[in-house]
Design brief:
Number of strands: 12
Radius of gyration: 17 Å
Oligomer: single chain
Structural class: alpha+beta
Number of helices: 4
Length: about 190
């Protein structure tokens, strides 16, 4: 059976119906300069062991540096960081110029105002068409002490959580239970 012809624009439009958060994946290159790229293809994968995944394009220069170093940091962006996302999504040669960041205790570049950071080692890499599926083993986690909200991407543009939706929904306890209880029929 041959693969059906799928129109690239239709593919993007349909997948754009799924709202995603936006991250910046960072590392140091072999010259010890910080590098990174904006990435919305990011997800939790496993609680035991703690694994995440992200999907860089095969031609990404930042991915080449991550592959070489074997380590990376996932920076979860806040809704105020649209310009930062655009900068790290561009071909700007020095994306860190003028951006507040620091080196973590695990010696990875961390964006100062990220909502959360997840520092990882590369566990494995799987071919994914014109991208790779990179599985990262979590080494350290931090969460912002501010009450910021995530930068989201939906239907080809930035979006945010409704202003009055900053408190947990009444079903939050059920969601917490679902996310922290593993059974044979749960995905996480």
């Amino acid at each position: 059976m041959t693969d059906p012809e799928i129109d690239a624009r239709a593919f993007r439009n349909v997948l754009g119906q799924f709202c995603t958060g936006i991250t910046v994946i960072t590392t140091f290159d072999d010259a010890e300069a910080p590098v990174g790229f904006a990435c919305q293809s990011f997800a939790a994968l496993s609680l035991d062991p703690p694994l995440i995944l992200f999907c860089p394009t095969k031609t990404s220069r930042s991915w080449a540096a991550i592959e070489q170093s074997g380590r990376f940091c996932v920076n979860v962006l806040a809704e105020e960081q649209r310009e930062l996302c655009a900068r790290f999504g561009s071909r700007e040669p020095d994306k860190f110029a003028g951006v507040p960041w620091h080196t973590s205790p695990l010696t990875l570049p961390v964006l100062d105002d990220a909502l959360a950071t997840i520092e990882c080692t590369v566990d494995s890499v799987v071919d994914g068409g014109d991208h790779y599926i990179v599985i990262g083993r979590v080494q350290a986690l931090t969460e912002s002490t501010t009450t910021g909200r995530p930068l989201l991407f939906y239907r080809g543009q930035y979006t945010a959580i409704e202003p009055d939706k900053t408190t947990p929904a009444p079903w939050r306890a059920d969601l917490d239970h679902f996310l922290t209880t593993t059974t044979l029929d749960t995905w996480l």
